[in-house]
Write a structure and sequence with these properties.
Elements (H helix, E strand, L loop, with lengths): L2 H168 L4 H67 L1
Helix pairs in contact: 1-2
Length: 242
Amino acid sequence: MNTLQWLWVGGLAGVIGTCVVAFVAHRWRMAQATAHWRALTEAHDEALAQAHERERLAIASLDEQGRAQGEALAAQQARLTQAEQDLHVARKSEAAVLEAKGHWQAEAERIALEAARLRGLAATFERWHEQMISLMTQNQDMHAKNHELSSIVRHVLIVSLNASIEAARAGSAGRGFGIVASEVRALATRSEELSKSYRDSLHRNDVTTTATFQDIQAGGKMIAASLSSVEALAQQLHSRLH
């Protein structure tokens, strides 16, 4: 083989070697690129999977929040409905209370008027009580005066009898004096009868006055008891109204 052939073979070998080296380098770069691409793909897939997982978790969280908000809204709606019902019941109760209050106020006013009337009756009975005491005192005074009058009448009778006796002893000279003594005795007798009648009338008046006084006392006590009961009832109504 001559030199030219060796050169040609050497050049061809160099070209082939260069081609082999270039091919090996290209394969190495392709392997590196493939590995890099696989790494990028895996990272991308992992990132995408993580993103999908985060999205799933976010959607689940939103769903949970939506359910919680729905339940909260339903509970709030139930509370509002209950509050409306309670308000309706409260308004009805308030109306009933106001109606009852008006009724009790009218009843309290009526009881106050009744108490005022009873106080007026109690004052009237107290005045009658005082007047009856005064009347009984006057009756006692009239009894004393009638007793004194009876004593005077009896004394006049005794004097007239003595005068008649003395006139009878004097005979005709004492006849006129005897007539006067007889008239005085007749007047004294009539006065005594009138005093007895007056005493009987005073006794009957005492019985009537005593019975009336006792009735007034009993009526006054009954009115006082009724007044106490009415005032206690008025106080209870006042307490209920407030």
